[in-house]
């Protein structure tokens, strides 16, 4: 899942559609989010400074990398005795999925990269309103109501303009997520891992797994051009552009998105047979 998000952010309707099609679904918290291990309590490095260094191609200091997070996913597969899997990732999760497909090709049946990027900086710039919403300091963790409202406004800014979320339901989900786990420092460390990964286009060119790239044409956080570039870098990748979709998984699109993933995974298995 994406930056700072938990396994509970995967919509049940989407996952159930995959299960009904005969697939088994494994969801897990990335390191530094949810109930997974966290990297510590030390204050992370400055994000603005790291972003500036990343933009100019300079090294970014971070406690772990996206490749480390891909290794975490492989470790989950090992623990569950899964030899090979269809790998699906959203936003930061898409970047981690790309790293898995590149570094562990023998473990990946297919790759689905959703609302993610190739890391090419000139293409990955968010709209100003989305960037400001993402970088706005959150309230103190003890101020739960203010924190829920802060995150709700962020999700409303980056969400799908054609498929607005129900405000009450959105705030309820956010509140449940905060009650389960909340780590702003962990989210910052994940963001540093993204910034440190830099331009991944050369890495993407090594991916051989059948690849589906899904991106909304109204994404204000990671623009459609990033999805297009991701598909262009991976041989044989297919791009599906979703009209009116922003940087979220709106309820109205869960069934058609699941259908795209099911068809892609089934096709990959047919090719491997």
Topology record:
Layout: H1 12-20, H2 47-55, H3 66-79, E1 85-90, H4 92-103, E2 108-114, H5 128-135, H6 144-158, H7 167-180, H8 184-197, H9 201-204, E3 211-216, H10 224-233, E4 238-242, H11 254-272
Parallel strand pairs: 1-2, 2-3, 3-4
Keywords:
single chain; 273 residues; alpha/beta; Rossmann fold; globular
Q: Could you characterize the architecture of this molecule?
A:
The protein is an alpha/beta fold and 273 residues long. It has one domain (7-125, 182-272): 3-Layer(aba) Sandwich (Rossmann fold), CATH 3.40.50.1820. Helices cover 47% and strands 9% of the residues. It is built from eleven helices and four strands; from the N terminus they run αααβαβαααααβαβα. The chain has helices spanning 12-20, 47-55, 66-79, 92-103, 128-135, 144-158, 167-180, 184-197, 201-204, 224-233, 254-272, and strands at residues 85-90, 108-114, 211-216, 238-242. It has a four-stranded parallel beta sheet with strand order 1-2-3-4, with helices on both faces. Helix 1 runs parallel beside helix 11 (254-272), helix 5 packs antiparallel against helix 6 (144-158) and helix 6 crosses helix 7. The longest helix has 19 residues, at 254-272. The radius of gyration is 18 Å and the shape is globular. The relative contact order is 0.18.
Reading the helices and strands in chain order gives HHHEHEHHHHHEHEH
CATH topology: Rossmann fold
Radius of gyration: 18 Å
The order of strands across the largest sheet is 1-2-3-4
């Amino acid at each position: 899942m994406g930056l700072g998000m938990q396994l509970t952010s995967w919509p049940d309707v989407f996952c159930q559609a995959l299960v009904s099609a005969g697939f088994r679904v494994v969801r897990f918290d990335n390191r530094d989010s949810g109930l997974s291990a966290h990297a510590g309590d030390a204050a992370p490095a400055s994000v603005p400074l790291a972003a500036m260094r990343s933009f100019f191609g300079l090294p970014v200091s971070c406690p772990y990398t996206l490749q480390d997070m891909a290794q975490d996913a492989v470790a989950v597969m090992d623990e569950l005795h899964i030899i090979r899997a269809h790998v699906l990732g959203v936003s930061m999760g898409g970047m981690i999925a790309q790293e898995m497909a590149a570094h562990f090709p023998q473990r990946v049946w297919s790759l689905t990269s959703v609302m993610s990027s190739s890391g090419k900086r000139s293409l990955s710039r968010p709209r100003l309103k989305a960037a400001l919403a993402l970088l706005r300091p959150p309230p103190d963790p003890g101020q739960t109501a203010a924190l829920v409202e802060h995150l709700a406004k962020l999700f409303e800014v980056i969400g799908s303009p054609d498929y607005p979320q129900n405000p009450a339901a959105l705030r309820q989900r956010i509140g449940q997520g905060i009650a389960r786990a909340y780590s702003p420092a962990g989210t910052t460390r994940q963001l540093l891992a993204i910034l440190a990964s830099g331009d991944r286009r050369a890495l993407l060119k090594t991916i051989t797994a059948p690849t589906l790239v899904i991106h909304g044409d109204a994404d204000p956080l990671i623009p459609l051009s990033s999805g297009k570039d991701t598909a262009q870098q991976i041989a044989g990748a297919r791009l599906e552009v979703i009209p009116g979709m922003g940087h979220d998984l709106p309820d109205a699109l869960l069934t058609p998105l699941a259908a795209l993933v099911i068809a892609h995974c089934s096709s990959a298995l047919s090719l491997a047979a």
